[in-house]
Amino acid sequence: MQLFPFQQRTFEALTHGYNVVLQAPTGAGKTRAALFPFLYHLAEPAPGCFPRQCIYSVPMQVLANQFAVEYAEVVKSYSHLDGFKLEKGVTIQTSDRPGDPTMEGDLIFTTIDQTLSNILGVPYALSSSRANLNAGAVIGSYLVFDEFHLFPPEGALKTTLQVLRLLKDVTPFVLMTATFSSTMLGELKSLLGAEVVTVSSHELSHIPSQRGKVRRFHAIDGLLTADSVLRYHDRRSIAICNTVERAQQLYAELCDRIGRERVILLHSRFTHEHRNAKEERVRREFGKDKEAWSAKDLILVATQVIEVGLDITCQALHTEVAPAASILQRAGRCARFPGENGDVYVYNVPPDKQGKPNYAPYIGKEEAELCQSSWMAFWERDGEALDFRGEQEVIDYVHTATDRRLLEEMVQEEGQIWAMIGRAMALNDLSVRRQLIRKVDSRTVLVHDNPEGLENPFGCTGFSLWHGTLRAKLEELEAWRKAKGLDWALKYPVEAEAEEDARVPTRYRWLPVHSEGDIGAAFLFVVHPALVAYDECLGFRFTEDGGGYRTEPDQQRKKRQENYTYRLETYADHVRSMVRVYQRDLVNRLAYAAARLEKKAGFPASGIDRAIRLAIALHDLGKLDERWQAWVRAYQAEIGERLDDETFMAVHVHMETPEHEAVALRMKSRRPPHAGEGAIAGAKIAHKVLEGNEGLRRAVITAVARHHSAQAGTFGDYRLNRSARVALKEALEAAGLDGSAAGDWLPQAPATKLENHILRLPPDDPHAWWLAYFLIVRALRLADGKSQEDSKKIDSPFVRC
What is the chain's alpha carbon radius of gyration, rounded to the nearest angstrom? Predict the structure, then answer.
């Protein structure tokens, strides 16, 4: 497959172990440059030559949706390569399309919010008890950060750079955009030790998509209205508003003037079905192949959802003022293809309640200053045609001072940023999300009159709204609620107390929203159907004349939740099943990062693999407690399946029907906890098996203690059953380890404190130890959750039904 020179340089740098900062104009092939190394290496037969998983992070949910659709087809074109194989396929994970919350796809398209929340241990997509599950996926993957300039500067941008400084010797990555300032490029090279790949003017002249197109810019001292759009309209026009509400208003005005059949509205608040249909129509009607155009003339009204990603064009593009990098990205949808001419019109924004320009969603002081500087830059260049070099001059004019200040602030705030990163990783401190990821954060809104009936609300598809939109609507929603006699208008979920069980779904209580402060308490909300409306023309909106629309649960996900079952299983057999899952699904996924981390941290070769196997062997050691085994026998007797063999050390009971679950719930005693107990019981064994490596030992013990709850740090009293040593010996051997460690190294009762053995808050323990922990606990928890499914396929004398 022929690559352009800049794509080839990107491939060579990554293949030789270097990370890349890539700048190339829109339409030149940045995405192909970033993904080709991953897809190429998937066909390599030797594991460990490159990560077997790629996480592609973008600033907006809709862009992730677009890429997922497009590259699912691109991936198929590589299927002819010898050895090319996808285990899980192309997936998408955003707040409104939570298709891969545990990050198991081969190629995952997601948002920077999701990626950062995962690596920091404060994931948006998982309950707090599972918060440590996904960091290992990020560490073990090849990372692509697209349109980096659009990341929130006061949150995600700074945090991404600090996280990449931590990961740079372990996890390969590409940072890319069309609109880096020269200052940012130079500083990123130094900060990250990365190779900078740019495209020269000579090289651009040989890229077909960049030849012979002319794009003129105009500054219009007025607001974006239907009149201004129609004044310059020819065959195809695009109008981009900064907010959904203004886009809906402009769409309605244009429909009144020229009819609905000549106008398309596209924003983030449509259902997948309607949005996909709209995007397909837009690609066809505004695409390169004018033979496919079925309408004589069309106007597309949109928000930032088309700022990047869509391969479309027009003769006239209208946009409200925004930071220059964003305006130039939007301009990439005008005169996009070779030989085309187009005009870009930049407008002011309406005033807010205080009479100041309403730059929302660019609401911070710095972003407002960028909008003002952008206006001046285009005003001074009114009527000029700008090529890529001219656009770069605008970027340097507008963004250089801000980029320099941002990087200087990041250095000054480094201690504070790392302290927050440490609190997130070690303590699952959700409060740091706002500082480390995004201050202007979004909320997912579901529509339902009985949220208690949603068994997995985080698996439902909702609408993403800026938190300020919700806050601003609360007073109006409350008034409508009272007028309609409703009991509530808006609710949010609170996680109920959970059992130590790898596969039981999380339960929630739903609390009504009473004040704006409650909007900060959660990232998922349910609004009453009577207070909203939805249709395929305008999309989702709040209204007192609502009704008729509500969120439907994902039936596939609901089925998976409902069908969890357990078989009566011995400790050793459970370990065997987990090792099978680990070897089949995870070992190759983690091999590249594990080898590089071992080198970085000074761990022995294959030390992380050995640590994972040990964690698997030890994780249910606490279930060999006399009380736990007594509970097993009492439960089995209650369901009519007595267990008389005293040497049968069970870690799972037979639970397959609702009647079985009802028996467990009505039993006088609950299953005793076991995670922390198993960790403390296995502390000396970990020291022996890992030959005194303190970093790996602490990582293993922390993973065992937290394999059901990411925050666990305590344990109760326990006394091991007299058959525990034999069972542990079998478990160690099943994991491929020396079973003799179960001898004198297994205490019958707790003899030390758990806090002496688990990882401590960084920097008391090195960050590299925490990276090892996240790899270990991911492998442990995924293997634990999937092992029973695997054991059903194996005919084993140790499994009883």
Answer: 28
